[in-house]
Structure formats: C-alpha cells, structure tokens
Specification:
about 350 residues, mainly alpha, DNA polymerase, domain 1, hpI Integrase, Chain A, about 5% strand
C-alpha cells in the first residue's frame, strides 16, 4: 500500500475546502439570484414584469394550481414545464390579449425560468423545453388575429394617435398664464425633441442652459446622458417659463392648482412637482382641448420621429437623437407615408 505524502494530503484538503466553498457560494447565489437580476432593471421594467408574472399566477390559479411567489422565490418555479408555459400563451390568446403583449409576457416567463434553472429549481431539461415555446412573428400574429373575435384588452392603443403639424402647433401655443407657459414647455420638449415622459419628468432647473440654448438630460431607459440643442420654439417657451414661473432649483416642474383652489381658474401653479402620471394626464387633457382624443406623451414622440424622418434626417442621427439603442426602434416609430414612394429619389 502506498502512503500519501503530506503534499498530496494538503492538496486534497484544499480541494475539499474549495468544493465546500463552492457549494456555499452556489447556495447563497441561488437565494439572491432574483434580487440581483431585479437590481439591474429599471422601475418600469420591473413593474411590467411583475404584472406579467401576476397574470401567469392568475392563469395557474384558474386551473386550480396553488403557487408560490414567482417574483421572489426561485423554488416557486419548480414544476413549471413547457406545456404549462405553452398553455399560458394559448390562455392569453383565448382572452383577447394583443399578440405583442403575449410575446412580451412569454419573454418574461423565459427570463425567470432561466434564473430558476441557475438556482437549481428547474432542471436544465425543463428549461430547454420551455425555451422552445415560441411567440408570434408579425405575419403569424395577423393570421391568429384573423381567427379571433377579440384581439386587444385593456386601454393600450393598437396604433398611435397621429398629429398634424397644425395640431402640434396648437398644443405648443398655450395661454399666457403660469400653467399655459408650463404646458407649452412640456409639449414642445416632446414634440420638438422626442423626449420620453420619464425623461421629461426628471428634468431639473440645472438641466437647462438657456444662454447656450441647450439641455443636458438623463435617459433612464438606455442609461445615457445627452445634450440637445433647443429648437427656437423650445428656447422661446423655456425663456418665458423660467422668467415667470420656474422654481429656483431642483425639479423644473410645478403642478397645477387643484380645482378646489380658487387660483385654478387663473391657471396658477403650486410648489409641488409633476409625476410621470400627472404629465401623461395633462397631455391627454391638452389633446382633448383641441379635439384630439386619447393623446399620450408617446404619441408626441411618434410625431417627432415621423416629422424628423420625413424631413430627411438620416436614421443613425434619428437613433442617437431619440436615445434608441438600435436603428430598428426609430423605424418602428415612424409613420408610413400616405404616398408610399414619396421622397424616393431616382436621379
């Protein structure tokens, strides 16, 4: 019998220690894997994913299946199979959910299934099979919708509200009151610069450099800080608002006086700020006042992208100015021209 040397024994002990440390690290990582993933996502993404997961739980509850907390506990995913996920897709279609929403929710389920697999709650085989469940391409979605009575649930619009240049100008031309001057700046930032509502809500007094005619602002969706040269309309609206109404520091926005406040009829403002939701509601109200129903801040971004593209802006410049991560996104925002070959140059 050959006796182990002291160096061999030491090596085996080190390997055992490493194996134990690895097991401990895996156990800890599996418990925190969801939290680590969620820390990397924006608040808007997390809200959407939570809604997706809650709908998945609703689908299972309707089938009489009790579940754990899918958004927090990897072990809650134990037992999820490709058949269950496929059934979730079919269940949504039967209830009239839009194809785009079905595809997004499927992506959420796959993302969390992958994390559950890494945590050891799902087998690699089950996850591989879940990965084979496919969403619907554009043409496939059209074929599916042809056979459905209901193809969209909820208040989200199938198509953006299109604005004419005259309507956009009316939205920017607001009464000469504190509220009107604020509204004019709100609208021109979306219509002339294509800012997202989340970006508008974050703007601060220090964002604006009126001397140089610029704004330097943060885009949380793509984690970018950008500088825009203000258009003449934006610079004019900003100067009027800053001269009369803007607070001295922090958020540039001030909320409207409430209806119960006697100052509301005079278009006065309070010292409170404006949330994304408040801005969204204000845009809808301003649209309704000029006869445009259902207007959203996102529609204003569509208008900006369309006008810029039709005026000859190269797609790479439009992508950068709009804060998109790929050229595919601005192309989705641009409305098709009524004359398909308008702007096509042959010589």
């Amino acid at each position: 019998m050959t006796l182990s040397t002291s160096s061999e024994i030491t090596a085996r002990n080190e390997q055992n220690h490493l194996a134990i440390a690895g097991q401990v690290a895996n156990s800890y990582a599996s418990k925190t894997i969801f939290a680590d993933y969620q820390e990397r996502k924006s608040a808007n993404t997390l809200r959407r994913q939570l809604a997706d997961i809650n709908l998945f739980a609703e689908y299972l509850a309707e089938a009489g299946i009790q579940t754990g907390i899918f958004a927090d506990d990897p072990q809650a995913w134990a037992g999820v199979t490709w058949g269950i996920v496929e059934g979730f897709v079919r269940w949504q279609l039967a209830r009239g959910y839009a194809i785009g929403s079905v595809n997004v929710r499927l992506a959420t389920i796959k993302s969390y299934s992958k994390l559950a697999m890494k945590a050891g709650a799902l087998s690699t085989t089950d996850f591989a099979m879940i990965s084979t469940v496919k969403g619907y391409g554009h043409r496939e979605g059209l074929h599916v919708d042809e056979r459905r009575l209901e193809t969209r649930r909820g208040s989200k619009k199938a198509l953006p509200v299109a604005l004419t240049a005259q309507q956009a100008a009316m939205l920017i031309k607001q009464p000469d009151s504190p509220q009107g001057r604020r509204d004019a700046l709100l609208m021109v930032l979306m219509l002339d610069h294509g800012l997202r509502v989340s970006e508008v809500a974050l703007l601060e007094v220090a964002t604006f450099d009126l001397q140089n005619g610029e704004i330097k602002f943060y885009r949380p969706k793509v984690d970018k800080v950008q500088i825009h040269k203000l258009t003449s309309r934006t610079l004019d609206a900003a100067r009027k608002y800053f001269e009369n109404d803007a607070p001295p520091s922090a958020s540039v926005w001030r909320a409207s006086a409430s209806k119960s406040d006697g100052r509301a009829s005079a278009g006065m403002l309070t010292t409170n700020g404006l949330s994304e939701r408040a801005i969204t509601k204000r845009v809808e109200t301003l649209g309704r006042m000029i006869g445009v129903e259902g207007l959203s801040a996102h529609d204003c971004r569509h208008h900006w992208a369309t006008q810029a593209a039709r005026s000859g802006t190269p797609i790479d410049r439009l992508q950068d100015a709009g804060g998109w991560s790929s050229p595919a996104m601005p192309l989705r925002y641009v409305e098709s021209a009524k004359i398909a070959n308008e702007g096509v140059k042959l010589t």
